[in-house]
Design a protein that fits this description.
The chain has a domain at 92-119 and 221-393: Rossmann fold, CATH 3.40.50. Helices cover 35% and strands 15% of the residues. By secondary structure, the protein is of the alpha/beta class. The protein has a six-stranded mixed sheet with strand order 4-5-13-10-11-12, sandwiched between helices. Strands 8-7-6-9 form a four-stranded parallel sheet, with helices on both faces. The longest helix has 16 residues, at 359-374. The N and C termini lie far apart (45 Å). It binds pyridoxal-5'-phosphate. Pyridoxal-5'-phosphate (PLP) binds at residues 120, 122, 148-149, 215, 247-253, 311-312, 358, 360, 388-389.
Length: 407
């Protein structure tokens, strides 16, 4: 019998402590945190030796295919605090037409995160963050969002009975604003970028109005996003691909997967091989790419950010050093693609492969084909491209236009 809930255990967790992501300063678990005292993101640390002794891979065969199957590497203590909407494992879809056109040894695989609740991988992070907030007694939360994070927080937070406030740039896709409102959150449209929205959320948090769930400003969204790395390694038979292309805004997923691979090696489930981590940004908002090229560990804020890929329109990322450290340690790189290339990739993959990518996902396809052409990525390297949201959430070109371009 499959354990259909994956939640049937109340237990001490394997969490030992939390730690400042920059200084390593130890901070207590089981307490509400935003940033570390020094102002950096906080990471969750586990007793990996004990997990190694007590958790066997074979136990997974009994568990349902959702992110709670990895509960030993997650921070939630009490199952009734988990608010679930079915955080399903997402499929790897080969791009066979693209592979044939480019004569590739292996089809690149799209990890299609658009299948998750609220149509994006933000569900992974916010499912875990909401469970932990509930565990720690939070009743009201706020978030700055380009759309998807707000929708996920609204859905999970309202399901947990909390009051939710979402601050979005006024030009967020209208469907997403309506989605957030439909989930019962208070939506505020702000004339500015997500960073301006973040300032308002921070002010309200300091005034005691709500708990701030901004990207990397609380410790648990990254734990949820980490499950992308756990799941990917499991799907590939406890190996990792040669290269991962990840559309990078705040970078939670990239940092989370990098953490996941380290934890999996420490518990003995994968070896020391790591994928090259490629941070993909839009040419109109590429602070991480600029810092990477300049050899810097911190990124200057990007002025006048503009791209159709709203999810990666993030002018400043508080975890910039964690993204850049992971990219460099992996032997990967950071690269920007322009909106024309993004839209051409979306059109081609939609028409040829049956997959309607979100613009951020299409950016990874554009970056991948450019890296193949320039020789930065070899034709025999197994690539995984992240499509982080459902393509139906974004404005599409009118029907009846000219045939799709190829990539
Ligand atoms: C949030 C988001 C991203 C960026 O994710 P990070 O992990 O915060 O860098 C990319 N694509 C989509 C569709 C998103 O919603």
């Amino acid at each position: 019998m499959l354990d259909r809930t994956n939640l049937a255990v109340e237990r001490p967790t394997y969490v030992t402590h939390l730690a400042c992501g920059m200084t390593g300063e130890v901070l207590p678990a089981d307490r509400l945190h935003n940033l570390s005292p020094q102002g950096y993101p906080i990471l969750v640390r586990y007793d990996l030796d004990r997990i190694r002794r007590e958790w066997d891979r074979s136990a997974l065969a009994e568990r349902a295919p959702d992110l709670w199957r990895y509960r030993e590497l997650l921070p939630v203590r009490v199952r009734t605090n988990i608010v679930t909407l079915g955080e399903t494992a997402t499929p790897l879809i080969p791009l066979a037409t693209l592979a044939a056109r480019h004569g590739l040894a292996h089809s690149p695989l799209v990890k299609d995160e658009g299948r998750l609740p609220t149509g994006s991988f933000k569900a992974r992070g916010l499912a875990v963050a909401v469970a932990m907030a509930k565990e720690l007694g939070v009743t009201r939360m706020a978030i700055p969002s380009n759309g998807n994070a707000g929708a996920a927080l609204a859905a999970y937070g309202r399901r947990a009975g909390m009051t939710i406030d979402v601050f979005c740039p006024a030009d967020t896709p209208d469907l997403m604003l309506r989605e957030i409102a439909a989930h019962g959150a208070n939506v505020r449209k702000i004339d500015g970028y997500i960073t301006d929205c973040g300032k308002l959320v921070g002010e309200g948090a300091r005034a005691g109005r709500w708990f701030d769930v901004s990207t990397l400003k609380e410790p648990y969204r990254i734990e949820g996003k980490k499950t992308m790395g756990l799941e990917l390694a499991e799907q590939l038979g406890w190996t990792v691909p040669d290269v991962i292309f990840y559309p990078t805004g705040g970078g939670t997923g990239l940092i989370g997967m990098w953490k996941a691979f380290a934890e999996l090696e420490a518990i003995g489930w994968i070896g020391s091989k790591r994928p090259k981590m490629v941070a993909v940004q839009a040419a109109g908002c590429a602070p991480i790419v600029r810092a990477y090229a300049a050899g810097l560990r911190r990124a200057e804020p990007w002025g006048d950010a503009a791209t159709v890929a709203m999810g990666i329109r993030v002018p400043a990322a508080i975890g910039d050093f964690l993204i850049l450290d992971a990219v460099r340690a992996s032997g990967g790189f950071a690269v920007a693609v322009d909106d024309d290339a993004i839209l051409a990739a979306r059109a081609a993959i939609g028409a040829d492969e049956g997959l309607l990518l979100c613009p951020e996902g299409a950016a990874t396809v554009a970056a991948y084909t450019q890296a193949l052409a320039s020789g930065r990525i070899g034709r025999n390297e197994q690539a995984v491209l992240f499509n982080c949201g459902n393509g139906l959430k974004y404005p599409l070109p009118e029907a009846g236009r000219a045939a799709a371009p190829t990539v």
